[in-house]
Amino acid sequence: MKLDQDTYSRCLATAKGYYRDIRRRKEIEKEIIQASKKTPDGLPKGSMKGDETARKAERIIAKQSEVERRITAVERAWRDCGNRQEQEFIKKNLFEGVQMRQINILLPDTGAAMSERTMKRYRKRFLCRLADYLFEI
User: Fold this and answer.
1) SS (H, E, C) the chain
2) How far apart are CA 53 and CA 121, in angstroms?
3) What is this structure's pTM?
4) Cα of 88 vs its chain's centroid, Å
5) Distance of CA 74 to CAs 57, 66, 90, 99, 133, Å?
6) Which of 120, 122, 128 has its CA nearest to residue 84?
7) Longest pairwise C-alpha distance within the chain
8) 84-107 confidence digits (pLDDT tens)
9) DSSP at 115
C-alpha cells in the first residue's frame, strides 16, 4: 500500500512527535489539576463571565482526547510490529530521530546489520499501520 503525500506527512509528524505528545499529556493533566485548585470564596467576581470554567474544561478535554488518540494509535502500531528488531528500529528512527545510516541493529537469523532497504520496509509498514489506526486511510 502506498500512502499519499499528505497522509504520509501527517503520520510521520505524529510518529516523530510521540515523545512530545507524552509530555503534552502530562502537561494537560497538570493543567486540569491546577484549574480545579481554585475554590470559590463565596464573593461575586465582576470580571468573570457566566460559564468560563466549563468552557475551559471543554477545551482541555478536547486537547486531551486528541493527544490520547495520537498516543494510542502510535503505541498500537508499535506493538503490532513484527519483531523486536523492527520495534527497536522504529523507536530509534522515528521516536528518537536517529538517521537510518546511524542505526546498527543486528538481525537474529543472519547476525548481519539491518540493511537500509529493510529499514525502509519496516518504516513504511509502521506508517501504514499508523495511518490505519489514525483513520487516515
Assistant:
1) CCCCHHHHHHHHHHHHCHHHHHHHHHHHHHHHHHHCCCCCCCCCCCCCCCCHHHHHHHHHHHHHHHHHHHHHHHHHHHHCCCCHHHHHHHHHHHHCCCCHHHCCCECCCCCCECCHHHHHHHHHHHHHHHHHHCCCC
2) 48
3) 0.80
4) 16
5) 26, 13, 11, 19, 8
6) 122
7) 74
8) 999 999 999 999 999 999 999 998
9) P
